[in-house]
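Task 17 of the worksheet. Students: predict the tertiary structure of the chain below and write it out as structure tokens. Keep your answer in the requested format; marks are given for formatting as well as content.
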Amino acid sequence: MFQPLPLFVGLRYARARTHRFFVSFITWVSLGGVAVGVAALIVILSVMNGFESELRNRLLALTAPVRISGLPGSVVDWDALAAKVALVPGVKAAENYAELQVLGVGQLEMMPLQLLAAAPATLQELQPLLVEGSTADMAGQSLVLGRLVGEQLGVAAGDKLTLLVPVVTGTGVPEARLREFTVAAIFEAGIQDHDGSLAFGTPEMLLSLGAGRSGSVGLSVESNDALSAPALAERVRAAVEGSGVEVRDWTQEHASYFRAIRIEKTMMALILLLVVGVAAFNIVAMLVMVVTDKRTDIAILRTLGAGPGTVARVFITQGLLIGWAGVSAGVLLGVGIARNVGPIMQWMDDVFGVQLFDADVYYLTQVPSELHGIDVLLVACCALVVTAAATIYPALRAAAVSPAEALRYE
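Model answer:
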């Protein structure tokens, strides 16, 4: 079978068993370094994707995909607007929404709370996050509190909680009123800002407390696909243009959380890419030593008519073979670990007694992992580019070998 000379000689050098021990050792270290770096990158990106997905699911349990609120000074017919929004493609439901800043008065202390309207869709999303009580029998005088709120105020499901509500009288004079409510349930989203500041009540309760005057009212728009909320928000914005309202989707309201995750993913990827870079330097060192060891062979190839480009391609072939083998092994290892992070962590806990997420400290007791094919492809491509770049200098050095100088003392 015909094989190009650079490919034939490069593969022969890569398979040769007569290398010096140190050269062979560096070869295996280089291959292993590339594999470990690629596997670590894939696993870390998958775990970060898992955490991002968990955060997204918990945030969506506490907020609507799209929210419509009135602009200052505007008068809006919310019922007519809800009917108009319901006709927008992709809208599942448009329900009344209200928000009010109140002061919780507990047995231990007082603290400010953000009281939100819990529409039926919101109560359904909250159900998996409940750690105490139930929302099935929520009435007009019932509340659902975050876990940290309940702890700081010293209340649990079934207890009474007094709220200090700011209201504006008919003469425009602000005053505070005390209202007593029953805590129906306690939720835990695993996000400190939400667990320590949010409370949910029925929309009717918030309106009776004066949310229309002292707080904010609007519509919460539900959809079947929360990930397409930005596109849905654009369609809703076009449908309600000129109504004196503002339309925002959940990605805008919680942009800081996902921006932080993206920054962490980028920094972790760059740091772990250094592992592949170190392995690439090992490939450079190994190929330089092979070039030095094969000076006589290079001189013979040159005297037989091989040009500098042909010689360079021989060592590029050898370096690429090592790099590609390392990348392939790393992809297989990384994908295998990323798909089995849970069982691996359970095995480590059983064998070594290592519990990464203590249930008494962390809300998540298992490491989430979500493998994306695009991440695997990007990692593999970046690693291949780095290892390919590592072959350039040794190949140029081999091409520069002078046949006369190499054979003078042979």
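Marker's comment: Strands lie at 66-70, 91-105, 110-117, 130-133, 142-146, 160-168, 174-187, 198-201, 216-223, 245-249. DSSP finds 17 helices and ten strands in the chain.
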